[in-house]
Each structure stands twice: as structure tokens, then as C-alpha cells.
Amino acid sequence: MKITWLGHASFRIEIEDVVILLDPWLEGNPMFPPQRRAEAIAGATHVLVTHGHSDHAADAPGICTELGIPAVGIYDLMSWWESRNDFPVIGFNKGGTVQLGKVAVTMVNATHSSSIATETGPIYTGTESGYMIAGEGHVIYATGDTDIMADMEWMGEVHKPDIGLLCAGGHFTMDMARASYAARRYFDFDTVIPCHYRTFALLEQSAAVMKQTLTGVNVIEPEVMQAMEF
Asked: CA quadruple 153, 158, 162, 164: dihedral positive or negative?
């Protein structure tokens, strides 16, 4: 299994028989090298979206149209895209599990907001979400954008994720200290990969606090377009 950070909260996940692009924000992402776009999306089979904000969802319709692959996410947003585009969608909701090839993806709660800007103002795109992605003997918890939630307690007990892709930049989501607290209290991760940080000066720039706090956990500060193998 390979996980590649594309900058911000975007990941390429090569697992089992699928290649999932999670919240792929490539155009306008200050961290992503645009000359490597073709490499980043090559062979992708699904685009998995946590919520409607532009730094997570803006590129999804274009990629899905270009590659002829489905967008996967909350029913409301998927239905809205389906009515306006010519690519397949897989819409589901919290607590639901969909099978993407040999990979099981379960939608779980997050606490944030979700909308898309339009010429007539923002529109509601369903609620924000996170995902438990299970395959190759691993369970990846992709938080999406969120703060700490009491829900994380049962999520950790039920799904037992060993890899956490944790938003940790602060301001818009939980910061490094809060993400570390959540990881320590509610989960038993082998590996934690922080994201949604370093993109802008407004966000945290280092995972030092997380590394100091999560002793015994492999905290990886990812580098863009450098695959991490598990």
C-alpha cells in the first residue's frame, strides 16, 4: 500500500486494486507542483471527497470527467454534481459503507462546515465527513476537516484504525495539540500523518508538537509527491 501526500489535505492512496484520490486539490494548491499533475492522477479509479469547500472539492469534477471515474462522497453533494456533470457518482451517508473494488470505505462523522461558492452565494452541500478506509490489513482514518469529537471514542473502538491522516493546521480545523490529544485519547495508531498544515502562513508549519506528544507512534511529516509505503 502506498500513500502519497499531494499537499494540504490531498492524498493519493494506492490500496488493494484501486487508486483513490482523497480531496484532490491540485490547481491553485501552493504546495503542489503543477508539472506533476499527470503523475499524481495517473491510474486513479475513484475520487473521494470529504466536503464541499474549494480546497477539497473544486478539482474533483474536472478529474472525474477527464478520467471517467466516479466521485464518492455525501449523497447531497454527489447528487448535485450528478445533475450538472457527465461522470458517475457514488453517494452515501454517515454510517454507510461502500465497496470500492476490494476496499471498504465507511463514512463517519466530522464537525466542520460544507458549502460551495456560486455566483448567487454559497450553497449547502450536505454535511462534512471523514472516512475509514479498509484494505490490505490496514484501516486508514481520514478525518477530513474537523475538531475533536466525542464520536472519536466509538470510532476508534469500532474501526480500530492503525493509520491516521489527521487535519492539524489549526484556525479552520483542530491544531497539532488538539489532534495529538485526540489521537492519544481515542485511537491506537501505529502511524499518524498530519495534513491541512503548512499550506498558508495562517496554518501551523511544523508537526514538532505532535512528535513530542505521540511517543511510540510513527509520526510522519509528509513531503509532497513522496510515496509512503505500508
From this structure: negative
- Residue 227 located in a structural domain: no
* Grid cell in block for residue 181: 490529544
Instruction: Judge contact between 226 and 5, C-beta under 8 A.
Output: yes
If residue 87 lies in a helix (H) or strand (E), which one and from where to where? none
- Enter the pTM of the model: 0.97
Count the domains in the chain. 1
Q: Please, are residues 176 and 194 in contact by the beta-carbon 8 Å criterion? A: yes
pLDDT tens-place string over residues 159-201: 999 999 999 999 999 999 999 999 999 999 999 999 999 999 9
> What is the sign of the dihedral through the CA atoms of 74, 77, 79 and 81?
negative
Is 128:114 a contact under the CB 8 Å cutoff?
Answer: yes
Check which CATH number belongs to the domain holding 173 and give it. Answer: 3.60.15.10
